[in-house]
Amino acid sequence: MRSRARAAALALLLAAGPALTGCVSALVGPAPEETSSPAVASPSPANSPAASPSPPVVAGTVTARDFSFEPADFTAGPGAVVTVTNTGTTAHTLTAQDGTFDTGPVAPGATATVTAPGQPGAYAYLCSFHHFMRGILTVS
Ligand SMILES: [Cu+2]
């Protein structure tokens, strides 16, 4: 286990966070769902029409891998839905530190969603299994 080296790599990834924010803005923007994206492939089994009268807009996608989020820092509109895809080989969660949102365990290869808080602000989150996996969801 070369966890020390891994931690160093993670630190580098986190340092790159602000640079990644630009990418997310593009994701979060008004861009209509383009069918060309190979990563989308969402079968959405939980397509319950009775659930919500006005479905919130899709804000973007975060990837949880071993052992970081990409992008770690991202922006979503109030109440927007963020899709979390786990491309790693172990389960991860995307959990607000204040408990506002939580995917619960996301198995390798699985996808989950969280709903961004309705109140603008910066919400720190982490993986409840690996507390060094962290990021910030900015609601604005
Ligand atoms: Cu994790």
Q: Can you give the mean pLDDT?
A: 74
Order of helices and strands: HHEEEEEEEE
> How many strands?
8
The percent range for helix content is 10-25%
**CATH level-four homologous superfamily name:** Cupredoxins -  blue copper proteins
Shape, per Cα inertia axes: globular
Task: Give the termini separation.
Answer: 40 Å
Which class of secondary structure composition applies to the elements? Answer: alpha/beta
CATH architecture descriptor = Sandwich
State the low-pLDDT regions, or none.
5-32, 36-42, 47-58
SS summary, helix count: 2
**What Rg do the Cα atoms give?**
15 Å
Major sheet strand order: 2-1-4-6
Ligands (ions, cofactors included)? copper (II) ion
What layout of secondary structure does this protein have?
Blueprint lengths: L2 H13 L1 H12 L29 E8 L2 E3 L2 E4 L4 E6 L8 E2 L14 E5 L5 E6 L7 E6 L1
Parallel strand pairs: 1-4, 3-8
Antiparallel strand pairs: 1-2, 4-6, 5-7, 7-8
The structure holds copper (II) ion.
Copper (II) ion binds next to loops.
